[in-house]
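note to self: dont lose this again. the chain is below, predicted strucutre after it. 362 aa total, dont forget to put it in the shared folder this time
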Amino acid sequence: MARPETTPQAAPAGGPSPVREILRRALRWETGLVVLFIATLIFGANASPAFMQSTNFFFVGLNTGEVAIMALPLALIIITGEIDLSVASILGLAGVVMAELAGHGWPIQAAIIMALLVGALCGLFNGFLITRLGLPSLAVTIGTLALFRGIAQIILPNDTLAGLPASLTKIGVVPIPHTQIPYSIAIFGFLAILVAIALHATPLGRSIFAIGLNREAAFFSGVRVKRIQLWLFVLSGVLSALAGVLFTFRFASARYDAGVGLELDVITACLLGGISIFGGRGTIFGVVLALAILGSLRQALTLENVSPQEQSIVVGGLLLLSVIVPSAGGVYQRTRAQVQAFRRRRRARAAAAQAAAGEAAQ
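---
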């Protein structure tokens, strides 16, 4: 499967339109994801007869909802050529802040707003260090991954803080009435539509792709590179905090180590979904497919009594696969192009030699 290109290229005269070319290339990767998803469903159905039941898919969505919400802004950040490894730490910090404030008598609505503000501040801190000080996003977010988790541990060292309103905690464990859809997945679906429209159908989306393809060219074309990236990190912080609120509701308690390791699933969902680690390429639809694959695969492995540690090995393998396969495809395409160019030059030299020999004979 070749990695999809999602930024319009100038079409040659009489050739296919840029939109058709984008769709053609994207569909190659996403068709492979559909095949992989079907294979996952077949594996799950063989693992347990309960896998194909509607209640099981409710649990798939329930366990995937927070990861899915965090994957949306991270996909945009990766498309611009950056990374955010602190998303799961922001999730844990936001949950601790909300539960701690609610435990001190704050109205739960105010506690939720403060948790979202904390997430925005965390994202702003990441974005400031990366866009204004010019620090590499990988190093910054590795540092803030530990920093935000450490702050959460200072606020709530060892205890599990419970006592949240039952009217809200049930949101994390029951579906929307008359459906088998978790609230977190419904929120994700709404956000995914908004993000997909913004990325694929607005000037902002074209700017995001342009930054990932060539930052300097985008800047000299009038794109506000630093401002866009800064706000993407703020968005990542806010949505990670929202995921933290929902995560806390699901477990009806908060801990400083909530969500440890979820960043692996979030990054895997983005890269497996076709987001290029080098930036400039990807689709939200591909990320949605990857999330469906990861959620279904984890649930199938759980039904097979595979431990969470062993499941992490599978997820790590998918992450490597999502990097190796397109890289190998790129090497193949470059090699093929070089071979074709060499053959064209050789034929041109041969034709020139024949023409020279014909003139000499005359």
